[in-house]
Amino acid sequence: MKNWLLLFLLLNSFQIFAQLGFCKGSKGDPIFHETFGAGTSTGSPLSPGTTNYVFVSQDPQDGEYTISDEISLTIQGWHPFLPETVISNGRALIVNAGFSAGKFHQTTITGLCENTTYEFSAYLMNIYNRASMDCENGGIPINVKFEIWDETDTILLKQGNTGPINSTNSAEWEQYALTFQTQVGQESVILKMFNNGEGGCGNDLAIDDIIFRSCGDLTEIIAKDNPANPYRVCEENTPVSVVLKATPDFSVYTGHEYQWQVSDDNETWSDIAGETGENFSTPLLTSSTYYRVKVAEDAVNLNNNLCSSASEAFFIKIILTPEAPRSLGNISICSNEDPQTLRVEAKPDETVNWYDALEGGNLLAEGSLSFLPPEAGTFYAEAVKNEFSCTPGPRTPVSLEIFEVPNIVDEVLQLCPDAVLQLDAGVDVMQYLWNTGEITSTINTSIPGNFSVTITTQNGCSEVKNFEVNAVEEALIAGINSEENRVIINTINPGTFEYSLDGVNFQGSNIFEMVPGGIYTSYVRDLQQCFTATLEFPHIVVPRFITPNNDGYNDYFQLNGVSYFEASETRIFNRYGKLILAAKGETFKWDGTLNGRPLPADDYWYWIFIEGFEPIKGNFSLVR
């Protein structure tokens, strides 16, 4: 028996609470909206007959109410403030429930439409602060019942209970709602609110944003050939007519009446005469247009926006062919400058592709208002729409011109003492500006230093040529290395010099190859030929080895070049310093023997004495 009683109570509770619920379809604009006013002070009392609670201008006690944006002025167990709702901010109705359950608020709603479904909603909050622990077990929950009566207060149209709303540790609004339907000829209802609980510690509530609005089906418009919204059409495919269909979801209405509307801006809507069916064919369109459909259960309500619902707008968007992008200017640069980017402007819903021809051609870059060309030339910018692939607009030519600058080579020059050196820019028909202030193509200088000239072309391109003028350093010969057929002239001081062995033919290298033996004069001069140093030296071609085996090759140690000297002497020593042979004149020749006996393979040393020169010393190898 107890189990059956429990089941009955649960089912009865479900039937009561289940009557609360939000409109599942399309909601109209509010017909009634009670915000209890704005401001930071206490509001005025409710109209007579609205409540049997007592109005106070402070925190209310049991059986009292106030209208304010502040709470917890004297009752410390309440939340310290009222948070903002998602709809309005300001005052709210603050109720401290009486000790007995009963009605605490009643108001009449007028201006309704007959035979129409409405949603009633309100924000509620348990204002007891659970964290204060002033009441046991979080205090008595609030529990509110809503009743909707006809204007005669004799027919209950709908009711619902919130059920227990427990206290929380932070102030939180919660919205509750129920839907109801007016009867034929009915234009007003009475809203009643009841406290289901009893007074005591807790059961204190705030209520705000009481709203009544029509409730209708969610109606979607689709095009029969393409369900996309917006419905996009390229300008080249206009004029176009589109067949539209209204598709309500039957969440509220059981029957449907329609009125199609049109708008240019999605704000101001006009009825389309005679278009009251489920389907609608637009006229031939050449410009973007919005359509929607008003839906009501009763045709008489289609003329009142507060008594009908409207679909979301269906947008037929005509995508205009883009205009040619606007060039931000052709660019001219000098060949010695960094590359420059070409730029254009287009509309926000467009992007730009770049080509190498006015029509057709190769795609060089896409999706950019700028382009960095790899070389000089004319390039073409074409605008395309971002959202849809339509015919692109005309192309805009943008050019990059590159002016060549002179080919400049810096110079390093030598200045002779007491001489005047001419510095030449080396380029004709230009503008010149030297770092000395002169503006001619050439200048003269008698002092060393760094000079520069800025050379500017007729196109305004400039390049700088630098001159390093150094005082000539006189060459000083340190000595001559004479080895086999090679002669190396060494200088004491470093510098840029020219070298010669005959005073006529000069070269940049100080090394001479394949030089026959003899007496020579070495010449070293600076590039400006200010100074020339000379040194006479003997060049004796000494073999590096001998192979005395009578094969006709390298059988003897003999010298090439001693014939140029009137007096010479050559001496041969072994590694221990023992004199092997000494002889004078150009006829000196040694066959690798001592007293007719062959000497062993080894290294041997020679001294060559020539009158007037330092001795020439070295070694050679005897190979067996």
UniProtKB/TrEMBL annotation:
Q: Where in the sequence is the signal peptide annotated? A: 1-18
Q: Which UniProt keywords apply?
A: Signal
Transmembrane regions? none
| Ig-like domain sequence ranges | 322-401
Lipoprotein listed as a keyword: no
**Which InterPro entries is this protein grouped with?**
Ig_7 (IPR044023), T9SS_type_B (IPR026341)
Q: Which domain of life is it from?
A: Bacteria
Which Gene3D superfamilies does the UniProt record give? Galactose-binding domain-like
- Which protein, by its recorded name, is this? Ig-like domain-containing protein
